[in-house]
Specification:
globular; binds zinc ion; alpha/beta; binds glutamine; 8-stranded parallel beta sheet; 27 helices; 2 domains; 13% strand; 25 strands; TIM Barrel
Length: 757
C-alpha cells in the first residue's frame, strides 16, 4: 500500500549545482551538454533520496531547468511571437532571460512564497501544440532507475489563471483551447505504463475563488478523467484551504485530492465531503515552507483527527506543498550551533520525518533506528519548548506590558513642528537609503567577517565610504542626506545579525527564480536588541554634514516577511517583539540628534494573505506593529517609510493608517496613474513618488524628470510632495547615480522656479 507522498522536491541541488551549471553555460564557458549532465545527476540523486526514505509516491516533472510554469508554456506550445524561430535550449532560456532581440517574459511571485515564476503570454489567435518530450523523458529516466513516479503537471485552470493575455482579454476564455491539449497529454501519458498517477497542481483554488473559475472545475476534471482509465488523477492544492473547489471536485471522477492542513486549517471542514465521496485524501502535514523539525507526536495527532472522518485506508501522508520552498539538507551546516541545529529540518530531513510520521500513524512496527529517531524527535521538541535561548522572560514581560502603542500627537501637530524645525521647501529632495555597493565595500565586509581585517580597519573603510557618499550628495545638491548603507549586505540580514533570537544558516539556500537563490535568516527565539544597531554609523554621517541626515531602519513587518519564522508563536507576536526592538532604535537615534528616521516596509504588501477573509487580521497587526515601532518618535522627529511598489489602490486606507509622516513609493514607470489614489482618498501625509526608475542603468535627463514632476503636480500639491528615486541605489554604479541625482536636483530647481518657490 502507498501511504507516503511528496508533492515535489527542490531541484537546485544541495550545493546549488544546477545554479553553477546554468551560470557557466550562460556565460559561454561550457556547453549545454554540461547542464544536461548536471541535471541528470541531480534528478537521479533526488529520486534516490526519496526512495531511500521510503517515500511511496515520488514525482517526476517537478524538475526544471528554470521554472515549471515556463515548462508548461513550452509543453503547450504557448510560445510568444517574438521568440519564434528559436529552438531547444535557445528558445527555452530566451523566453526566460530574453535575447538580444526579444525581451524576457515577465516574472512574478508564486502565491505568497519567495519563488518567482515566468508568466505565460497567451493570445486568442495563437495556435498551440503539445510537446511532451521533457515530461516523458523524465518519467522514463526515473523508471530506468527503478522508480515508478507520479507525473506532476500544472493544471489547466491554474495555468490560465496565472497567465496573461497580450490583448488584455480574459485568459479563462481560452479554456476551450487549452483543455484538449491536456486531454491529448493524458492520452500520451496513459501509454507510458499499465497504471500511472498524475498530480495536477491547482493552487489557484486556494485564492478567493471567482464563480467563473469554480464553474470550470467540473467540466475540466470530468473531461480529463474520461480520457483513459489507467491514469489516476490527484488534484493538488497548497498554501491555503481549497474548500470551495473540494466541494466540486468530490463530484468529479478524480482519484485523489491533496490538501494543505498546515496553512489551510479550514480544509478540516471538507473532510466529510471527501469521506462521503470515497476519494483518497493526500494530507499535507509535513511543513514544506519552513525549516523546523516537525513534532512527530503532534503531527500524528493531527492525522488521527483527520482519520476520525476519512478512513485510514483512504489516507496518504504528504508534505504540505513542494519542498522547493525549504532549503535542501542540513548536511552542510557545519557552523550552526548544535542546539539550534537540532531544532531544524530541511528538505532531505523532512523526508525521514514524513516516513516516520506515516509509520507511527499507520501503526507499523518501528525498527531500532526508527525508535531512536522518534525519541530524538521528542527530545528536540522538548528542548525547543523549554530552552532559555528561545524563551526570554524579559522580552515577553516587556511586550505584554507595553502601554505606549503609537505616537501621541496627530499628524497635523507633528508636521507643523517638523516644518518649523527642518524648514524644508516644497519638493524636498532625498534618496531611499543605499548608494552603490562597490567591490571594495563588499570585499571589506567579507574580510571583516572572515577576520582578515580587524574592526578598526573595517570601520575606517566604512567611514571613508560614508565621507565620500555624503560629499557626493552635497555636490549633487540633495537636501536630506543618507549615509549610503555600506555596512549592510541586506536590509533584513543586517538587523537580524544584531538581534537576539535570530539565526543564520550556512547553506540554507532556497530557489527564488531561475538560478537565483536566497538564504533567509531565521527567527528561532524571542527577539531583543542587545545594543544600538545603527546609531554609530548614522551619527558619524550626521557629523559630516550641516544638512539633515536621515536614519535608516527596516520595519518589523518586512523583517518578519523576509525571514523563516518560528512556528511556536503566532507571527503577529513575533512581529510585535521586533517592533519593540526597532522602537528602541528609533529612540536612540533621536536622542543622538537624528531628526528624520526612515523605517522601510519594502515587504509590507508581500505579507498579504492569499484569502481576503484573512486580510483584516493581517492589516490589524501589521499596522499595529509599524506604529509601535515608531511610537517612541517625538512629534518633531519626522518618520518616513518606503515601499517598493506603486499599486496602492487596495490598501491605501491601510497605508494611511500606518500614519508615517512621509512615504516614498515606486512610481516612475507608471507616470502619475498610480499616484491618483492618494488624491482620491484625500491622503494627508507627505509622499515621495519615485521620479526615475533605478532598475535600469539609464540616466534620466533633466527634461524628463521635469515632465515627471509636472505629472505628479497634476495629482498632489507641491507642499505634499518629496522628490526622490524609486528605490535604493545599491545595485547601480556611481557613474550612473551621480548624473542621475544631479539631473533630479536640477529638475527640482527648474520646477520650483516655475512655481515661484
Ligand atoms: N533603504 C533600502 C535601500 O535603499 C530600501 C531597499 C528596498 O526598498 N528594497 O536599499
Ligand atoms: Zn524600495
Amino acid at each position: 500500500m502507498s501511504n507516503t507522498y511528496v508533492i515535489g522536491f527542490p531541484r537546485i541541488g544541495e550545493q546549488r549545482e544546477l545554479k553553477f551549471a546554468l551560470e557557466a553555460y550562460w556565460a559561454g564557458k561550457t556547453d549545454f551538454s554540461e547542464v544536461e549532465k548536471t541535471a541528470s545527476t541531480l534528478k537521479t540523486r533526488h529520486w534516490q533520496y526519496q526512495k531511500d526514505a521510503g517515500i511511496d509516491l515520488i514525482s517526476s516533472n517537478d524538475f526544471s531547468l528554470y521554472d515549471n510554469m515556463l515548462d508548461t508554456a513550452v509543453l503547450l506550445g504557448a510560445i510568444p511571437q517574438r521568440f519564434r524561430g528559436l529552438e531547444g535550449e535557445a528558445l527555452y532560456f530566451g523566453m526566460a532571460r530574453g535575447t538580444k532581440d526579444a525581451v524576457a517574459m515577465e516574472m512574478t511571485k508564486w502565491f505568497n512564497t519567495n519563488y518567482h515564476y515566468i508568466v505565460p503570454e497567451l493570445h486568442p489567435n495563437d495556435t498551440y501544440a503539445l510537446n511532451a518530450d521533457k515530461l516523458i523523458a523524465e518519467y522514463k529516466e526515473a523508471k530506468a532507475q527503478g522508480i515508478t513516479t507520479k507525473i506532476n503537471l500544472i493544471g489547466p485552470i491554474t495555468f490560465l489563471g496565472l497567465s496573461k493575455r497580450t490583448d488584455r482579454g480574459d485568459t479563462y476564455e481560452l479554456f476551450g483551447k487549452i483543455l484538449p491539449l491536456y486531454e491529448a497529454l493524458l492520452q500520451q501519458i496513459s501509454t507510458l505504463d499499465d497504471h500511472i498517477t498524475v498530480q495536477i497542481d491547482e493552487p489557484i483554488f486556494v485564492k478567493d475563488i471567482e464563480p467563473k473559475v469554480l464553474s470550470l472545475i467540473k467540466p475540466c476534471y470530468e473531461t480529463l478523467c474520461a480520457v483513459t482509465d489507467n491514469v489516476d488523477i490527484v488534484v493538488a492544492t497548497y498554501f491555503e484551504h481549497a474548500t470551495e473547489a473540494v466541494k466540486v471536485l468530490v463530484h468529479t471522477p478524480v482519484w485523489g485530492i491533496a490538501l494543505d492542513f498546515l496553512y489551510g486549517k479550514k480544509n478540516f471542514e471538507v473532510l466529510d465531503a471527501i469521506a462521503n465521496s470515497g476519494k483518497t485524501l493526500i494530507a499535507g502535514v509535513i511543513d514544506g515552507r519552513n525549516i523546523w523539525k516537525c513534532d512527530i507526536d503532534a503531527t500524528v495527532a493531527q492525522l488521527e483527527k483527520i482519520a476520525k472522518t476519512v478512513s485510514k485506508e483512504k489516507l496518504i501522508v504528504s508534505t504540505s506543498c513542494s519542498l522547493l520552498h525549504t532549503p535542501f539538507t542540513l548536511k552542510y551546516e557545519e557552523k550552526l550551533d548544535s542546539e539550534i541545529k537540532n531544532w531544524l529540518s530541511y528538505g532531505v530531513e523532512k523526508l525521514d520525518e514524513l516516513s516516520l510520521v506515516a509509520k507511527c500513524f499507520f501503526g507499523e512496527n518501528l525498527n531500532a533506528a526508527e525508535q531512536a529517531a522518534l525519541e530524538a524527535n521528542r527530545k528536540a521538541n522538548h528542548s525547543r519548548r523549554t530552552s532559555a535561548r528561545i524563551h526570554d522572560e524579559a522580552v515577553q514581560q516587556r511586550v505584554a506590558n507595553i502601554t505606549k502603542h503609537q505616537r501621541d500627537e496627530t499628524y497635523k501637530t507633528r508636521i507643523a513642528l517638523q516644518h518649523e524645525l527642518l524648514g524644508y521647501k516644497p519638493l524636498a529632495t532625498t534618496t531611499i537609503g543605499s548608494f552603490p555597493q562597490t567591490t571594495e565595500v563588499r570585499q571589506a565586509r567579507r574580510d571583516f567577517k572572515k577576520g582578515v581585517i580587524d574592526e578598526a580597519t573595517y570601520k575606517e573603510k566604512m567611514k571613508a565610504y560614508i565621507d565620500e557618499c555624503v560629499a557626493c550628495q552635497e555636490r549633487c545638491g540633495l537636501e536630506v542626506l543618507v549615509h549610503g548603507e555600506p555596512e549592510r549586505n541586506d536590509m533584513v540580514e543586517y538587523f537580524g545579525e544584531q538581534l537576539k533570537g535570530y539565526g543564520f544558516s550556512q547553506n540554507g539556500w532556497v530557489q527564488s527564480y531561475g538560478s537565483r537563490c536566497v538564504k533567509p535568516p531565521f527567527i528561532y527565539g524571542d527577539i531583543s536588541r542587545p545594543k544600538p544597531m545603527t546609531v554609530e554609523w548614522i551619527t558619524y554621517a550626521q557629523s559630516k554634514t550641516e544638512k539633515v541626515m536621515k536614519g535608516m531602519l527596516t520595519g518589523p513587518v518586512t523583517i518578519l516577511n523576509w525571514s523563516f519564522v518560528r512556528d511556536d508563536l503566532p507571527r503577529s507576536e513575533v512581529s510585535r517583539q521586533i517592533a519593540v526592538a526597532i522602537c528602541d532604535e528609533v529612540d536612540d537615534l533621536q536622542k543622538a540628534g537624528i531628526k528624520i528616521i526612515q523605517v522601510d516596509e519594502a515587504a509590507f504588501k508581500e505579507g498579504y494573505p492569499l484569502r481576503s477573509e484573512n486580510i483584516p487580521e493581517y492589516e490589524r497587526w501589521a499596522v499595529r506593529d509599524f506604529k509601535l515601532s515608531v511610537s517612541s518618535a517625538l512629534p518633531q522627529t519626522q518618520i518616513h517609510t518606503h515601499m517598493c511598489y506603486s499599486e496602492f489602490n487596495d490598501i491605501i486606507r491601510t497605508i494611511e493608517a500606518m500614519d508615517a509622516d512621509v512615504i516614498s513609493i515606486e512610481t516612475a514607470r507608471s507616470g502619475n496613474e498610480l499616484l491618483k489614489i492618494f488624491a482620491e482618498v484625500g491622503y494627508k501625509q507627505e509622499v515621495g513618488p519615485g521620479v526615475y526608475d533605478i532598475h535600469s542603468p539609464r540616466i534620466p535627463s533633466v527634461e524628463e524628470i521635469v515632465i515627471q514632476i509636472h505629472k505628479l503636480l497634476e495629482v498632489l500639491p507641491k507642499e505634499q510632495l518629496w522628490i526622490n528615486p524609486d528605490c535604493g541605489l545599491k545595485t547601480r554604479k556611481w557613474e550612473e547615480v551621480i548624473p542621475s541625482l544631479e539631473n533630479m536636483v536640477k529638475a527640482v530647481h527648474i520646477v520650483r522656479e516655475e512655481l515661484g518657490v
